[in-house]
Amino acid sequence: MSKFKKGESGNPKGRPKGVIDKRQKLRIALEARAEELLDVVINRAMQGDSQMQRILLGRLIPPAKPESLAQTFDLPDGSFTEQAKAIVKATSQGEINPSVASELLSAITSSIKIKESEELEKRIQQIEERIFESEK
Could you tell me which of 111, 114, 116, 119 has the C-alpha nearest to residue 87? Predict the structure, then answer.
């Protein structure tokens, strides 16, 4: 048998207002010494600590965003297989970025799944119509 009744909270009043959790306590303690901590991090980075350098540079220089699909690439007409082959070929020849190729291939995969679902739906509908007609 469980401690609590179904649909009832074990703590109906919730957390009391003003209670500070562990993360808030830590944040408050760090904020109080933020300048001192920043000086330590900068000094360690200047002395060659690569982890501290990475932390500081990660804050100063935002990470590069991958190229978008705005990169020009015309998919050939034809089957999904032909389109996928064209993408792989263009990637191997350096015409398109691998991340763009991945996005395009993912879009083709989604299109295939949609097409399969539509075909299954049509087939099920045809089977149901045949069953319904045979019952008449």
Answer: 111
